[in-house]
Every structure is written in C-alpha cells, then in structure tokens.
Design brief:
This protein is α/β, with parallel strands linked by helices. About 40% of the residues lie in helices and about 5% in strands. The protein is built from 17 helices and five strands. A five-stranded parallel β-sheet has the order 3-2-1-4-5, with helices on both faces. It is globular and about 90 Å long. About 5% of the residues have low confidence.
Amino acid sequence: MAKRLAIYLFRNDLRVHDNYCLQWSHLNCDLILPLYCFDPRHFQETWHFGFPKTGPQRTKFLLESVCDLRSNLLARNSNLLIKKETPENAIQDLFKMLKNDHKLFLVFQEEVTKEEIDVERALKKICKAENVEVHTIWNATLYNKEDIPFKVSHVPDTYTGFRKSVESQCEVRSTVKMPDTLKPFPNVNIDLGHIPSSKDLGISDFLPHPKSAFPWKGGETSALKRVNYFLWESDKVAKYKETRNGLIGDDYSTKFSAWLSVGCLSPRFVYSEVKKYEQKRVSNQSTYWVIFELIWRDYFRYVALKYGDKMFYPSGIMGKHIEWKQDMKKFDLWKDGKTGVPFVDANMRELALTGWMSNRGRQNVASFLVKDLGIDWRLGAEWFESQLIDHDVCSNYGNWNYAAGIGNDPRENRKFNMIKQGLDYDPEGEFVRLWVPELAPVKNGKVHTPWTLTGNDFVDIDYPKPMVIAPEWSRQLGRVNPSGFYKNQQKKGMGNQRGLDFYFSNKNQPKK
C-alpha cells in the first residue's frame, strides 16, 4: 500500500510549536514533506503605488525565520524543502514526482485576504485535477473561527462588541504539544534548496540600526526567548499597560507582533503563557492587556474575512466616499520624515531606518497623513506594508481604515493633535532628538515646536518649517514654560495610559 504523504506548505505559520497543520500531518500521514516557497510575487510592487512589496527590513526578518524553521524541523527528524517560485508551480512539480508512489495530501493554513485566497483557489484547482486531497486549517488566531459566537457575516462592527462576545462566550483552545520526532521526510531524490539572500530575491541588504527598538532576529527560537524574557525573566508584562505607549528602547512593549505576523509565534501560546503567569505571579490590567491586544489582532482578521476586498477600497469597509488627495510631493515629505513636524518626522525616520515604529507613533503619523494632509490613506498603508518588519495585512489595512474614518471606529472624525501627543508621550523630546539629530540643540519639550522659538530660545537649525499648522496645536504651546519645564507633566508612566482613547470611549474601557 502506498504511504500517505502530507505536503505541508508553510505560509504565515513559520513555527513548530502549537501548529495545527503540522500536528494534522503528523497524526494522519506516514511521511511529511514541509515546503516553503519564496513567491516572486511577494517581492514585486505594492498594488497601487509601486512601493517594494516586501522591503529590506522585512525580507531580512523573513529569511531569518525560514532559516530557523528549517533548523527546528531538522532537530525533529524532518527538513524543509525551499523553492524560489510560486507555490502553484512548486506543488505541480512535486505532484508529478511523488504521486505514483504515494497517497498525497496537501496541507496549508487558511488565510483571509485576496492575494492569499487566490493562491489557495489555484492550489485547490491543481489538487482537484490531480485527485489529491486538500486539508486546510484555521491556525492563525487566538479564537478559532469555528468557536466564535456569530457567523462571519455578523461579526460586530465595533471592537468592543466583538471582544465582549468572544470573551464571554468562547474558550481559547489549548495549545497542542508537538512530538520531539516528527514523521520522516520522504526518501526521495530531491534538491532541498538553499536559503536565498536578499539580493537573490531582488531586495537590497538591510543593516540593523544600532538604535533600533527592535534588535531581534526572525524565527521561532528568537520569538520563544522573547516571550520567556518579557514574562518570566523580567516581569515586564506586569507593568505593560503603563509602558505600552513608550517610544524608546526594547522593553516598553512586548514586540511580539513581528513574530506573530509570520507565524513564528502562536497567539494561543502567548495566551497560555500569560494565563500561567497570572496564576503563578500576578494578574492585573497589564497582563490582561497583552490578551486584549491579541483579541484586536483577531478582530482585524475577522473583519477582513467579513468585508473581503472592501478593506482595500478608497471608501473602506464602511463605504464612506471621501475625496482623498494623491499629492506625491506632500506624501514624500511624510514618508521621508521631512514634514517640519518633529513628532511625525521622528517616527517616520525610525521606520525607514529600522523597520519598526511604536503603536503610538503609527496612530499619530497615520492621523497626520489622512486628517492634517488629506492624503489617500492607501498611500500610507502601502508604505507601511513595504517598510514594517511586523506587517500583517489585516492589522495594517484594518488600522488604516480606522485612522481614515472609514473603518471600525465608534467615534467619527477622530483626529490626533500632533503637539499634544508629542508633549504627552515625549515630554522632554528625547525621542525626537534621537531620530531628528538636527534638532539636538533644541532643549526639552520645545523641540516639538521649533518654529515658535524666539529670543533666547532661538536656535539656528537646518530643519524645515511645518508643511501645515493645525489650528488646535496653538492650545498646546503654553504647556512648555520659559524655563522649559513641561506644565502638568505626568509622573513617569501615568500619561501612557491615555492610549486607550484611540480605541474606544472611556465608558467602554475593559475592567480587570
């Protein structure tokens, strides 16, 4: 009898731990052929505006993640076949090679957005023609699609409604323990392929920046070390809600998002570790907030599943028709960090140099682009797609819908005050001076409004005037007095809790 062979196509699930696809393959087949394809389409251009679809920062992280995956599979009696071609072509070639001697199965993780679904449909068509059984598995979220208490078409249009429903009516499934030894890789004469370089993929090399707030490598091994450090070694998780709106350094936030985005880290594993931590050490709003943000990640994925391609339309998932501008000169000033608004410029330069930007920074630069400049939000979304190490299509486009006022926002016409935000979260200007060195001579919080410097405060700096001055900014100018002290300055950590107001009104804030 022909042996049952699972061809497991890894996609955004680059891990061994808590991997439903790998578990199914191990339990149901005699042999497993793990496969990863560096799909050339992923290294071309973004849909509308032609930015590099996967920039140097994320390409490096991806290469490291695939390399680590191969190492972890080798440690479990397996291996990873690597192809530099589309999955459709790779699968067809494997079927021709293997179908005469094996009972074949194709296994892969289900995705939810157009490009990924198009690949899935093409693969299913190939399998049907070759009489190969396809087994797709929902593997990427905290709450399983089969367990949520509503049909996908009835996913709530506010995060709070979604969160309250799943928290009260669903259980997070337990993580699955993977065997130390997997079913063997098939004994066939096949070139296993090598990990390409960035240049092999047509992408320039990326050199890590010494001041990056994300200094880690890609891969499951690095991800698990980070979880262990943030919870068990440092207890940083116990103060997470107080630090999560930080801007400088490694530890103000979990930084789990990059590993989650390519599946090096299971959200269910993070959840299970937080629950263990709460039982053994402390349970508070900070520990809950990690779970709260995992649910946000789930929510955007279910929103994408519900609305499909609408998430990418100019009018967004809510179908709001706004006259967006595509002023490329203004957009370039924004992306290059040359707007003349220090808090915006610092964040955009950090992104360009490191591939990382804080959550607080992302909210502000998005608001500035769409609300202060009136620029097409899709330009911002595609630039983030190109540059972010932790780009996740659902979270990125969901958040840009949100920022542009065409998505899941319970409050319309939300607009961030750049000066207030700068003074709230960077009161002494340390973050601005870190990434905008030409402003180094400007001391304390005055660095957020260099165009207002006069008299003894005046410094001759090579920095542009702001490309726009919003009227509401004037209300913040008195918050730095002549001695430079930031009036009403929050005690360390206190102001950081204001990040709640981006997501919902105070009455809907969760209690713990």
